[in-house]
Amino acid sequence: MTDAPLKLLARDAEDLSVMSVHLQDAELKIADLVYLPRERRFAFAVDRFDWERRTLENKNCRRRTAVHFEDVTKVSSRGVPLDDKAAKLNLLALAFEPGEEPSGAVNLLIEGGGIIRVEVDCLEAALKDLGPTWDCGCCPSHPEAEAETEDA
What we know:
The chain is α+β, with helices and mostly antiparallel strands and 152 residues long. It has helices at 13-23, 51-57, 143-151; strands spanning 7-10, 26-36, 41-49, 61-69, 72-78, 88-98, 104-110, 114-120, 125-129, 134-135.
C-alpha cells in the first residue's frame, strides 16, 4: 500500500505545501535541474525520502521523483553552485510567495541557505514518482535545527 507511486498537482499555495511535505529532504543534483524558457517550464528530478513509509513501517527508503512547474517566466538562484553539475543538494521545502494574482514565485529552499526561485504567471506544478522505492541507510536529520529547538 505505501509503495504505490505518488502523483500530485499543485494549483495554489495549500496544494504546494502538501507537495513540499513529500519533497522534504529530497536529494537534488544540479545536473537534474532544467529550465526551458521557450516552453515556460522548469523541471527537476530528485531522490525523495519516503516520509510516509518511515512513519508507517519505520523503513528508510528513497524514490526517484520528477517535478515540473508550468507558466514559468524566470528562474534565479542564490547560494546554489549551478556551475558544479555533480553537486548534490538537500531540498528542505517549497514555499509560495504570492505576487499580483495569480502570479507569484516558488522558492525551493536548500539546506545551508540556498534558494532557487521560480517565478510563475500562475501556479501549476506536478510531482510524479518514477519508480519503486529502494532502501537507504538512514533517516535525514537536521542537527542545527534540533539544537535551536533545545535552546528555545
